[in-house]
Amino acid sequence: MNRRVVISGIGVRTPGGGDREAFWEMLASGRTATRTISMFDASSFRSQVAAEASFDPAVDGLTAQETQRMDRAAQFAVVCAREAVSDSGLDVDRVDPTAIAVSIGSAVAAATSLERQYLAVSHGGRDWVVDNDAVSPHMFDYLIPSRMPAEVAWTVGAQGPVAMVSNGCTSGIDAVGHACQLIREGWADVALAGAADTPITPIVVACFDAIKATTPRNDDPEHASRPFDRSRDGFVLAEGAAVLVLESYEHARARGARIYAEVAGYASRCNAYHMTGLKTDGREMAEAIRVAMDDARVGPGHIDYINAHGSGTRQNDRHETAAYKRALGDDAYRVPVSSIKSMVGHSLGAIGSIEIAACALAIDRCVIPPTANLYERDSECDLDYVPITARDARLDAVLTVGSGFGGFQSAMVLRRTTGAPA
Amino acid sequence: MSAVVVTGIGVLAPGGLGLEPFWEGVCDRRSAISELTRFDTSGFPARLAGQITGLNPAELLPSRLLVQTDISTRFVLIAADWALRDAKVEPGTYTDYETGVITSNACGGFEFTHREFRKLWTTGPAAVSVYESFAWFYAVSTGQISIRNTLRGPSGALVAEQAGGLDAIGHACRAVRRGTPMMLTGGADSALDPWGWAAQLSGGQVSTATDPDRAYLPFDTDARGYVPGEGGAILVLEDASTAASRGAQNLYGEIAGYGSTFDPPPWSGGRPALGRAALLALEDAGIGPTDVDVVFADGAGVAELDRGEAETITELFGACGVPVTVPKAVTGRLYSGGGPVDVAVALMAMRDGLIPPTAATAKVPDSYRIDLVRDAPRPADLAHALVLGRGRWGFNSAVVVRRSPRLGSETP
Amino acid sequence: MAAMTLDELCHLLVAVAGEPSAEVASTDLADTEFTELGYDSLALMEAAARIAQEYGVRIPDADIFEMRTPRDLLDLVNGAPGAGDLPAPVAARP
User: Fold this and answer.
1) Distance between CA A47 and CA A208 in Å, rounded?
2) Test the C interface: residue of A38, A209, A211, A231 with most C CBs within 10 Å
């Protein structure tokens, strides 16, 4: 079985935007949401910049009980899932629950709650042997984060396959890719697929401080995320989530659903090189791109836009540029490339799904979001990165990629949906 | 479609370092559950665990890897080494993109991260290790296995509490079916540091019994919770035709089918979906319940959950219609490592024609109506085994293991 | 603060990054490239962080990526202006 898979609903929570429409408006305007960290006093950290979401669970419809039991990332995921279902017009009560799958990605899952718990049970870190009497009954949910997809499943009563895909910073693409495979191969007709991460907490900031992966541009936070710019010096940590409603094409057509785009191809590869380092040649990302294009039955000449991983670290942007040239040949110089991380930061596992949402909206709205803060060309990054200003364009095929710790390299091709059989 | 076969196994679990010693221990009902010795447990209501002892990772892994890995990652790396050595894949048999890794993980590198949390909050951010960012996250095992063994194919990491290990095997099996001829899969966990221990206890199902022989009693009238353990297993899966053409020497059996489902919301009163996961796996394997010769049950060791699983088994197979066993009674529950160890044990059971016993369970409630193998291994001709796994909050997974035609007398 | 010796540096590297992956005679060690010793940029960042804590010498980020051999690193530590000036580490206070 190899069924077509389409996106029929989108829910997004990111810094700088309240919901899907605010998110899109922000991308189209080129505004940035990177600021000085306010969630804790970060003055003793190397990088003090982050993209924080203004998120109020009550405003977003979570009950007090839901807010109390869920970690922040799970809250984001559930809110996005509900927004996506509402957007899709899907009446979940009329869908066989055993045909609904859930696939949620996250890199560090309940990190924020873990750190809060740690302080509560260790006397502020002093005790190695923690105080068992001070442990929250929810600590088990934070230890083992498959609680997050469970919460999403409960919100729609899904009884098909439910998975948490935790592949670090490619989790967001891979969770959607995983769900696509489930629908293609007939294990589900509908899937809620996406990712959430809320990593703005001291331990995670310290993790990236230690390896100097995040930007130290503390004096200019609004312009701190600078993908492909010559002066880029690291990524900006962010929180966020996106969840999509995926359906088999037949299922969506049968109920007359509005379709944003088709998930036409997906592939992931590993570089087997280094847990954090990247070779300069982009070989494995190029292979993932090539296989994803084959899967989608498109060639380099068909790609109208590349939504880049574009984290803004020195090595990533160079690596990725090399991968595009390797996979697309001369077409790499023709295709517009942009990184929305310049605006919403890098929300680790979540960003891949947020970027898929951006691609689906870009196809739907015929607009290419820009790369903000790109002022100075870098000789190693010599493609068309759509600096500063969004561009109108009809997009028939879009490529989005991700790269993450552990060596994961993933690529996905979205296409404008046509009635013709694939 | 070519079959997916298991050609290499590495088991690293309480009671046995390596497949054969582990299998012997399981058959002999040698329990590895004992007093948790990693720290002073006097402030904790539960003090028994399934611990791995007698392993010196420094003899098995380079010190560059030791400094950057949690104990759980070391277990996985060593199990992967053993599995690959067992499979005897000659270099050059497959290209780098023809080999991938899918592991399951439940707790991340928890002890490692506990130490780093402590350094952060006692010394400051500059004290946090450069390795923390990836020693902690759930994809660490997949990434480190990929790097150590140059596996560049489709790869990933799945989390589903105790069901995740079967999910990893199931999805690795699908990756082979889609065209990647060799996959490493499985998983291991360990969170036996004080904070990890407290976190496990917070789930409310850990046994507070003090007698190691009466602490984890799946399907027993005295079931009182589970004992957490550590470790797991890694399997080498291969496309049967490429395995045959390279002359693979070990054909333990096939991963013939996989299914996964999720329970309705707990407040809905709906029926649990474990049985449907089993049926999906059987359908995927092209067999029916009557073809199943043994069930490796999830065996939660919690009365309500045991009763539910017993009901599922009797609905599928009839009252006492199939032998049921829970070999994990000797190791405790291993989270992501549990399913892969069960699959490894199922393969050995088929090889030796022997169903291993459920070690300590003495009295099964009559109302369960299951034929639980207790006391001693039971000789049986086994062509198909059904392995069940449940993860907290509603995850259900099932894998069907089929005896390899080469190892048995009959073809399926 | 006392100068750091090669011996101390080697001990520190082993502690934070493990044994070197290549067998190198101790007389040649100072001038053997880190890449040959199996020490990647992470190992060097970890070493620099430990040196800052134990010797009070902060090695600038750019230098961490530039240095090639243990001798380069020693020269940076022992020749660094302001050695010992680093304030005591401050615990994070969210």
Assistant:
1) 8
2) A211
Q: Is residue B411's pLDDT more than 60?
A: no
Pick the closest to residue B151 from B98, B103, B73, B105 (CA basis). B98
Average pLDDT of A50-57? 97
Quote the Cα angle for A259-A261-A263, to 5°: 125
* Pairwise CB contact (< 8 Å): A178 & B121: no
C-alpha to C-alpha distance for C10 and C2, rounded to whole angstroms: 16
Q: Chain A: list its partners (3+ Cβ pairs within 8 Å).
A: B, C
Based on the structure, what is the number of domains in chain C?
1
Render pLDDT for A181-225 as a digit per residue (tens, 0 to 9). 999 999 999 999 999 999 999 999 999 999 999 999 999 999 999
| Residue C85 included in any domain | no
CATH number of C53's domain: 1.10.1200.10
Q: Quickly name the fold that domain A5-110+145-415 has.
A: Peroxisomal Thiolase; Chain A, domain 1 (3.40.47)
Chains that touch B (3 or more CB pairs under 8 A): A, C
The dotted CATH code for B4-245 is: 3.40.47.10
Sign of CA dihedral B55, C17, A46, B142: negative
Does domain B257-401 match CATH 3.40.47.10? Answer: yes
Residue among A46, A139, A207 whose CB faces B202 most closely: A139
Would you list the domain boundaries of chain A? 5-110+145-415
**What 8-state DSSP symbol labels residue A101?**
E
ipTM confidence score: 0.97
Provide the residue ranges of all domains of chain B, joining segments of one domain with +: 4-245, 257-401
CA distance B127 to A37: 20
Give me the mean pLDDT over the B93-108 stretch.
97
Is position A169 annotated as part of the catalytic site?
yes
Catalytic residue, candidates A80, A169, A180, A381: A169
Q: Is residue C90 part of a domain?
A: no
Per the CB < 8 Å rule, is A202 touching C90?
Answer: no
CA B340/CA B104 separation, integer angstroms:
9
Of the candidates A178, A223, A251, A309, the residue annotated as catalytic is: A309
Of C21, C45, C90, the CB nearest to B124: C90
- Residue-range definition of the domain harbouring residue C47: 6-21+30-79
Q: Do C89 and B65 make contact, defined as CB atoms within 8 angstroms?
A: no
Domain-embedded: residue C86: no
pLDDT tens for A118-152 read 999 999 999 999 999 999 999 999 999 999 999 99
